[in-house]
Structure formats: C-alpha cells, structure tokens
Design goal:
Length: about 250
C-alpha cells in the first residue's frame, strides 16, 4: 500500500452546547469551538497506525469547506499525516455532492484506501462513504471496529445489529470507522509546530468540475422538548395509576 486518503470534516466540537438560530433555520456556529468530526479523527488515527506498521505509506488528509477548515487539516498534519488538500468553497454540500467531490480527488490521487467516519455528528447522514464507494465502483466496509491490511485485501470487523461480522474486501476500497476502532492520539506542541511546515494545498471546488446538487431543504430546526419533572409516588398502586393515565399500560 502506498497511499491512504482520509476525509476530515469541520464540525462543532462535541463538548459544545448546541444553540438553535433565532429564525430556526439551523444551528448557530458563531464563536463556537470547531473540531475534527470525532468519527473522522478515528479514521485518521487508524490510517496513521497502518502507516507506522507498513512504513512506506503516505497519509493524505482532505477537507471540503471554507478557509477555516485549514485549522482541522493542520491538526491532522500534527497528528502525523504527510500532506493535506483543502477543496475551498463557501457552500454547504449534501452527502452526494461531497461523495462526488471525494471521487474527483480519488481520481487525482489514486489512493489504495479511502477512510472516513461512518457519519458526521452535525448532519448524522451516514451516507457519504457508501455513495463514494458506489461512484468509485469499489468495495466498501462500513462501521469498522477493527481493521487489518493483508496485502491487497482489508480484513474488517464491523458492528451490525446482531453483533459483529468480519468481511474481507479487495483494495482499493472505502472504509468508514466506528467509535470502538481506536482512541485518537493526543497532539503535542512539537508536532503542531512541525505541521506548519507540511504541505497544505488549496484548490477551488470549481476546478474539480463537480456539479453541486441540492435535493433537500431544511424547513425548520427545533430543540428537543424540555425534560419533564419527575414525580415521587407513595406506592406501586399510585405508580400504576399514573402509567394508566398516560396510556403506557
């Protein structure tokens, strides 16, 4: 294996309290801490572990978005990636357009393995990896909780409703990662300083000749309902009576 491409999405940090915009058209990100999507960070960590085992592997991190995404790409470089590519655009794309953009980069870079998180914590679509594999015409292994590269094949243990299943796919392939695959490394200051010297190329979305398709429209964004106060009951009979009133039994 010579090259692994890892997609990193800029998303709200998972520790940030989400706030809805006043017009309810979406979530506000003004002034909020942004980070690498946690599932994508796990994908990058696994790519770096493969590189450490196989030595002659180049890890390329890519992102699609505005110039602010350079922050997340620099973090990926500080973790150990060799170089980065930003597809610059001010538009927010749906999964199909993202998959088509990744396919255009795959055609340019010819990686043996493309890794990304199973989903982003903002949209929760869980679609991009599958769409990329279909557009590329290559195998896919989703929800990976264990990954082993054996020559021209990847052995992937994935989580399914009934438990775990292990599949073998031929490379090149697309692998999406789950939380249990690994724990990403902590980035230290020396690595952050070194990352500033690593190449980060910026290309315009228009250069890739990809049509930005918009199929959906967000009508309304609402916060979840407030949790109701609990009730202390005297005995089982009172509890059963309350449950009957609510139609739960």
């Amino acid at each position: 294996m010579q090259k692994i491409m890892v997609a990193l999405k800029r998303a709200l940090d998972y520790n940030v309290r989400v706030r809805i915009k006043s017009d309810r058209t979406g979530v506000t990100t003004d002034g909020a801490k942004m980070s690498i999507n946690p599932f994508d960070e796990i994908a990058l960590e696994e790519a770096l572990r493969i590189k450490e085992r196989e030595k002659e592997v180049e890890v390329l991190v890519i992102s699609i978005g505005d110039l602010a995404c350079q922050q997340q790409l620099r973090t990926g470089l500080a973790m150990g990636a060799d170089r980065a590519v930003l597809v610059q655009t001010d538009q927010i794309f749906e999964p199909l357009t993202v998959a088509k953009t990744l396919k255009a980069l795959v055609d340019r870079e010819s990686p043996e393995l493309v890794m990304l998180g199973k989903q982003a914590i903002d949209g929760d679509n869980n679609q991009t990896g599958q769409m990329l594999a279909a557009l590329w015409g290559r195998p896919q292994a989703t929800f990976a909780s264990e990954l082993l590269i054996k020559g021209k094949q990847a052995l992937v243990t994935r989580e399914v409703d009934a438990g775990l299943e292990t599949i073998e796919v031929d490379l090149p392939a697309v692998v999406t990662t789950d939380l249990r695959l690994n724990e990403p490394r902590y980035v230290r200051l020396p690595e952050i300083m070194k990352a500033k010297k690593k190449p980060l190329d910026i290309i315009s979305f228009d250069e890739l000749d990809v049509e930005a398709i918009s199929q959906f429209q967000v009508v309304l964004t609402e916060p979840p309902p407030e949790r109701q106060k609990g009730v202390i009951v005297k005995d089982i009979e009172e509890l059963l009576g309350l449950l009957r009133k609510k139609g739960l039994i």
